[in-house]
Amino acid sequence: MSSLEGVASEINSFTINNEKDAEEFRIKFIGSKGLIKGLYLELKNISPDQKKKFGQQVNGLKLLAEEKYNCAKERLIKTGSNISKVDLTKPGIDESVGSRHPLSIVRNEIIDIFTKIGFSVSEGPEIEDEWHNFSALNFPPEHPARDMQDTFFIEKGEQEIALRTHTSSVQVRVMENSKPPIRTISPGRVYRNEAISARAHCFFHQVEGLYIDKNVSFADLKQTLLYFAKELFGEKAQIRLRPSYFPFTEPSAEVDVSCSICNGKGCNVCKYTGWLEILGCGMVDPTVLESCGIDSHEYSGFAFGMGIERISQLKYKVNDLRMYSENDIRFLKQFTSNI
Ligand code: DAH
């Protein structure tokens, strides 16, 4: 029969220097045939009035032994006494680091291209008043052009509040708050009340461009966009401008880039036209300049706006817009970039 004191002093005096000692300790004290188990078995011979106290003391011994064993094991691992157990020939543990979202990659590329020629980056709110989203951009109230952008209104009434339908609202904010020369691009998220499908979504992303200075001409606009297309799609890229209508630019144009998939020969991506539409642009309407406090006799400028999803779709051949926001890892992990 082992006494409580005897077992306690044996636990305390046992030295654990290596794995073998640790295993011996475990078998002697904690194991299923160990001394502590023996003490528990003695419980049945103890008088009822002593039972509780004895049981508590054995529990205490059990804790003491387990703690000593666990500390020793931890120390052995830390000090490397266990080195023989580490297999250095095993492959390392795979740490996946994630990757950028394709829309972030394309947005960063666009920013890079324009900052190289002196454009700054500006941002504005996604919850916008109707002045910045419409009126200042020459969309009068009740004008049918407002219907081109199906809007999520938050508050109707005297001062309407809505989710911005385009990043053109940031043009207005920049012109109101700074003096020309202005050369800026504004990337951001925009919202439209569209049924979600492969080709339309209720939110998407745009990059707006604005250049205001003395003597800015349509030729500057064309050259800037050609530079942009070549940087983004390669040296062979060409652009063509088709007349169009936007309330805030006059003249306005829609810009196509030569199809980089078939090099302009015609394929199913460009619907056998050889061209892909990428953005809208034009010379800032003098009414817009004046609404934003800029003298339209002294200054002129151009603006453009493009959809990031659209450009990303052309670069990566993503044919369903919904994939951008479904967070499917199988889709997301295909994109790599160094920006
Ligand atoms: N805001 C327009 C849209 O969302 C795109 C656009 C067209 C922006 C012409 C411009 C521009 O700055 O000049 O449909």
Annotate the secondary structure layout.
Layout: H1 4-13, H2 19-30, H3 35-42, H4 48-78, H5 102-115, E1 120-121, E2 127-129, H6 130-133, E3 153-155, E4 161-163, H7 168-177, E5 182-191, E6 203-213, H8 218-233, E7 239-246, E8 249-258, E9 275-284, H9 286-291, E10 300-307, H10 308-316, H11 329-332
Parallel strand pairs: 1-5
Antiparallel strand pairs: 2-4, 3-4, 5-6, 6-10, 7-8, 8-9, 9-10
Helix pairs in contact: 1-4, 2-4, 5-10
Task: Walk me through the structure.
The protein is α+β, with helices and mostly antiparallel strands and 339 residues long. The protein folds into 2 domains: 76 residues; 237 residues, Bira Bifunctional Protein, Domain 2 (BirA Bifunctional Protein, domain 2, 2-Layer Sandwich), CATH 3.30.930.10. The protein is built from 11 helices and 10 strands. The strands form 2 sheets. The protein has a 7-stranded mixed beta sheet, sandwiched between helices. It has a 3-stranded antiparallel beta sheet with strand order 2-4-3. A hairpin with a 2-residue loop joins β7 and β8. α1 runs parallel beside α4, α2 runs antiparallel to α4 and α5 packs across α10. It starts with a helix and ends in a 7-residue tail after the last helix. The relative contact order is 0.11. The mean pLDDT is 92. It binds 3,4-dihydroxyphenylalanine. The site of 3,4-dihydroxyphenylalanine has 11 residues, from β9 and β10.
